[in-house]
Amino acid sequence: MIWALILGSAAISGQIGRSATTQDREAPDGWSTASPRDEIRPEFRFESGGTGGPGRLLIRSGGLEGAAGCWRKTFPVVGGKSYRFQAHYLARGVALPRRSVVAEVHWQDDEGRKVLLDQPTVAGYLRGSKGFAETEFPPARGTDSEGWTEVTETYPAPSGATRAVVELHLRWAPEGEVRWRDVSFQEAAPSPARPVRLATVHFLPKGGKTPAENCRMFEPMIAEAARQRADLVVLGETLTYPGLGKKYHEVAEPVPGPSTEYFGGLARKHDLYIVAGLLEKDGNRVYNVAALIGPDGKLVGKYRKVCLPRGEVEGGIEPGSDYPVFPTRFGKLGLMVCYDGFFPEVARELTARGAEVIAWPVWGCNPLLARARACENQVFIVSSTYEEMDRNWMVSAVFDHSGELLAQAKTRGEVAVAEVDLNRRTHWISLGDFGAQLPSHRPPAPKD
Fold first, then answer.
1. If you placed Cys at 361, which of 107, 149, 277, 285 could pair as Cys (CB 3.0 to 4.6 Å)?
2. Which domain holds residue 201?
3. What is the CATH number of the domain that holds 401?
4. How many domains does the chain have?
């Protein structure tokens, strides 16, 4: 059975903000309005969009500081079935839509009470507890040429739920207004799993005499990762540098270049992605980079390390300035390198740009920071380090959304693989799906 409200999708070209061109009437059946307090209640209006045509749900702050309110509708659900929420919004005068224009879904029973999750929570001291099904935050998926942003997600209804309350918000934008259209909440097929096998290599090259020899030492470990059906294998930082007794610039090379060509052959042979830490020479500049090579053997892209420790600064390495995220056949991949992990900004920016997995060549770092970067961003992190276990420092591992180790390589030459589901959501006590809340709850980026 399908329960849905469809508010049509006609463009409003040239008519935004000019109420005289719209036809106003009472809200559609089942919709109501709400605000935390009357003193911050914004203006609400339903715009029919023309004679008998499609409509839009308008919220306008009208210059009111602190204005906050929402349109609200309750939909019946059957516990255990899956439902797809979808809507489009068009915002005007809103400085930061990710925080101010938010859709929410609340699961309730017949009495309007919260219901329990069907699965235990997975993080912290309350791991395994049956927490409540907290508010869902459907994500924005993209904006079309006319400025309409799609918001959509599919959710399994908790078994105790009999209704879902959909709320469409505008908040904290005193000169702002938002129009919502095409709002639907209907039964749908469950979201399919998106499994990916992530591999880390724990290996420090020793005994080589050239950068090429260092590269060749990784061949058997890449083959082992392939034998374990890895989709992605992550190697160490500046892997053409250790043990050669040379300076950074003396082993630096173009990217793409000889090392990416070599690893490209292995990636093509084993049909997987490889992330290799290298030193890049670009004119008179040297960068510490992570290079992503695809299953076709070609360079997908590179990330230039942004945060440099004093030794690299003194060695003439220059920092990068961008945070590229690369689409792959399994999902969106971000890259960072070693000292980046000491600072929250790098992993946060990669995640904000859509990274679902971060590959991290890392010579050494505090492993607590590795767990924090995964936990605070709800992202899988794959680290590859040179540190020995008896130093009680960085580890070569796959970290999950709670910062826990799913797999760890502990001895020289060992490969560890973990299979994860990129569509599986992590629920925390009192927070629910924290990852879904990050866009609307994280602070505005400070301006330097």
1. 277
2. 195-427
3. 3.60.110.10
4. 2
Greatest Cα pair distance, the chain, in angstroms, is 80
pLDDT band at 350 (very low <50, low <70, confident <90, very high): very high
Tell me the average pLDDT of the chain: 91
d(CA 361, CA 392): 18
pTM for the model stands at 0.91
Coil, strand, or helix at residue 184?
Answer: strand
Task: Specify if 10 maps to a domain.
Answer: no
If asked whether residues 269 and 418 sit together in one domain, one would say yes
pLDDT band at 446 (very low <50, low <70, confident <90, very high): confident
Catalytic (active site) residue 65: no
Backbone angles phi and psi of 269, in degrees to 5: -65, -40
Distance CA 68, CA 66 (A): 6
224 is annotated as an active-site residue:
no
Question: Does residue 71 contact residue 181 with C-beta atoms inside 8 Å?
Answer: no
Q: Is the pLDDT of residue 10 over 90?
A: no
Q: Active site residue: 215, 307, 338, 375, which one?
A: 338
Pick the catalytic residue from 73, 281, 302, 305: 305
* Listed residue (438, 396, 433, 391) closest to 413, CA to CA: 396
Residue 237: active-site member: yes
Asked if 301 and 413 sit in the same domain, the reply is yes
Q: 171 and 277: one domain?
A: no
Q: In whole angstroms, how large is the CA radius of gyration of the chain?
A: 25
The mean per-residue pLDDT over the stretch 216-238 comes to 98
Residue 89 CB neighbours (<10 A): 28
Say whether pLDDT at 58 is over 50: yes
